[in-house]
């Protein structure tokens, strides 16, 4: 008798209100200790006090599927079926956040699509933190807006299958609901205006920079057509060319090939070649041995060049 629905209760979704929760979970709730001790003979007035004592939300947990107090109170509300005004006051209550979550969950299960969007969408602006019990018994931090968003979008919440909702777009087209205005629209508009101004400033800077600076394609053509003067200097100053230009054998070879026709010129040329050698060797001792060594070297060089030796 204690687990039966009240006689004056109306059917919800064409069935008994308690049947909105699956039979396996419902039998687990009937066998739980919280249901037997805390939910026995509860009325709508006493239910408010129990809802204010809630510390977290959740479905079933553990290996043997234990129900949470939140789920037990939801089933008790389906059993006694309180008035709609009481549920609306639960939702509008801002002092006790778990009372608000309890009223929102009950309205989502039993209410129509119009009532669900009408009463639950304002709760999307509530960002307070709540505790949620997971299936393994651990606790995580959640938010009221996330909980309400799951009620409006997901198919299952707190291990209970949620009834299907009509799409909001269809309800707007039939003028049952007004288009939803998000609280973030003003912030998004401000961000859009600031981003447009920044884009305009960037475009102005780019255009001014293009006017001042020449195009990179022309610079590339210039570099390709006219090599840099540094490269020319580096080529003219290369050590190999210096050595080639300053090597005495080629000059000596060309001069001596042009001047062997007259013997007088050859003697004069030989005397001119010896003069700088003597000037450069002023610091050395002038002896006959040195002169003979120099003559031998000159004769060896002349022999290589095919010239007559010196006397």
UniProtKB/TrEMBL annotation:
- The residue ranges flagged as biased composition, category Basic residues, are 221-254
Q: Could you tell me what this protein is called?
A: Pre-mRNA-splicing factor 38
Please tell me whether the keyword Repressor is annotated for this protein.
Answer: no
Report the family membership: Belongs to the PRP38 family.
Instruction: Give the gene symbol.
Output: Prpf38a
Assign the protein's first listed, main location to one coarse class: nucleus
The processes (GO biological process) annotated in the record are: mRNA splicing, via spliceosome
Pfam families assigned: PRP38
Task performed by this protein: Required for pre-mRNA splicing.
- The Acidic residues compositionally biased stretches are 184-201
Residues annotated as region Disordered? 181-297
What taxonomic lineage is listed for the species of origin? Eukaryota, Metazoa, Chordata, Tunicata, Ascidiacea
Location relative to the cell: Nucleus
Bias type Basic and acidic residues, positions:
286-297
Q: Which UniProt keywords apply?
A: mRNA processing, mRNA splicing, Nucleus, Spliceosome
What Gene Ontology cellular component terms go with this record? spliceosomal complex
């Amino acid at each position: 008798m204690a687990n039966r629905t009240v006689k004056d209760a109306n059917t919800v979704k064409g069935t008994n209100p308690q049947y909105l929760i699956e039979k396996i979970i419902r039998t687990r709730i009937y066998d739980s200790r919280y249901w037997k001790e805390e939910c026995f003979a509860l009325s709508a007035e006493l239910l408010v006090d129990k809802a204010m004592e809630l510390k977290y939300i959740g479905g079933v947990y553990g290996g043997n599927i234990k129900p949470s107090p939140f789920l037990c109170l939801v089933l008790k509300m389906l059993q006694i079926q309180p008035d709609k005004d009481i549920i609306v006051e639960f939702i509008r209550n801002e002092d006790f956040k778990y009372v608000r979550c309890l009223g929102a969950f009950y309205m989502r299960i039993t209410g129509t699509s119009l009532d669900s969007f009408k009463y639950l969408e304002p709760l999307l602006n509530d960002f307070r933190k709540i505790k949620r019990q997971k299936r393994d018994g651990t606790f995580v931090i959640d938010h009221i807006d996330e909980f309400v968003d799951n009620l409006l979008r997901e198919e299952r919440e707190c291990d209970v299958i949620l009834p299907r909702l009509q799409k909001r777009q269809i309800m707007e087209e039939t003028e049952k609901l007004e288009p939803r205005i998000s609280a973030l629209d003003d912030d998004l508009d401000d961000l859009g205006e600031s981003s447009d101004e920044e884009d305009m400033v960037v475009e102005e800077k780019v255009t001014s920079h293009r006017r001042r600076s020449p195009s990179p394609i022309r610079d590339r053509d210039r570099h390709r057509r006219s090599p840099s003067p540094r490269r020319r200097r580096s080529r003219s100053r290369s050590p190999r060319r210096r050595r080639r230009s300053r090597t005495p054998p080629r000059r000596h070879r060309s001069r001596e090939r042009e001047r062997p026709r007259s013997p007088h010129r050859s003697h004069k040329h030989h005397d001119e070649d010896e003069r700088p050698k003597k000037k450069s060797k002023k610091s050395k001792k002038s002896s006959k041995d040195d002169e003979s060594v120099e003559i031998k070297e000159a004769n060896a060089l002349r022999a290589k060049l095919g010239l007559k030796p010196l006397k």
